[in-house]
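Question: I have long wanted to understand how a fold can be written as tokens. Here is the record:
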Amino acid sequence: MTAMALWGWVAVGGIVGACLRVGLAQAAAKWWPGSFPVATFFVNVVGSFLIGLLYAVGLERGGLSPTAYTALVGGFLGSFTTFSSFSLEILRLLESGQTALVLGYAVGSVVAGVAAVWLGLLLGRAG
């Protein structure tokens, strides 16, 4: 398969993942009004389950072609939620015994992400 064809499959997966995420967010807001971000929570948990399943079936057991795995994980789950990738990376580091790296990565990602959002809001609101 050519690189362009692979990119095309990733794009198709991305479109489906993004549309599903928006649809779930709209449904969650309708079904569970309130301040708790149900849609994001649900998407993150479902995406994390799916990336674990796809990793085990697709890579470890060879049940998916590299193209299908890339389209599903990089495309679909990449636009559905990047939290799933974060969760898989954390688990893989834990499995390899790199506890200190896990703590640094997890805490650093959350702190840096929240700080980046705060900085972006500050800059965006200043203009």
